[in-house]
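Bug #77: duplicate submission created two jobs. Keeping one. Sequence:
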Amino acid sequence: MAWTLAAFLVTFLATRLVTRLILAGRGPFRDTTVGGVHVHHQVYGIFLLLGVGLVELTYRPGSPWFEVLAVLFGVGAALTLDEFALWLRLDDVYWGPEGRRSVDAVLVAVVVGVLLLLGFSPFDDDAGAGRVVASVVLAVDMLFVLVAILKGRALLGVLGVFVPLLALLGAVRLARPRSPWARRFYRPGSPRLVRARARFPAGRRNCWDPLVDLFAGRTAAPDPPSGPGAGAPGS
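Kept job's structure:
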């Protein structure tokens, strides 16, 4: 996990630096095109993840190749999640407002990686006589996680997989006004929807927006045109 997390962080930082240099037209870096089609760096990440998974499942190598695979997995995960917004929206929004979701996804992945590195785990293989109770608790926790995510509390939902109290906190708190939960259960003009819009005014996303600004830019540029040959700078 330490090798994977370190490779993930280094690759993400290097990728953001390279894409900014490409956008500014500085340095030797240029977009990669094949037959006039821009190849995003998530493509390299996806193939790298597929290759690492295939090698691990087929050969299950020991040290030091296991550590090498861990590093390659971190690299592939960073390249893929750095364009999370693109494969979520099926559109080139890397430098647009929606592109900030990519940085959100990376930050969530880092938090999860740190929790795993510290030994947190949602599953316990040594439950013993309490296996049934543990399974029920896990099922209830997953329900709270789902509700928290549907309410737009994605971070609390993900962290709640490891710390159930956080999932419960996200499940009982007010939903974001644009979340699936609010669209389904908050009627137009209802007090809950009014409070949700006051709690989350337009333009406010997460408490870590300043950190997202550092990587995605404080002022989001308009979404670039999509189609062959057009796209966000990528390595």
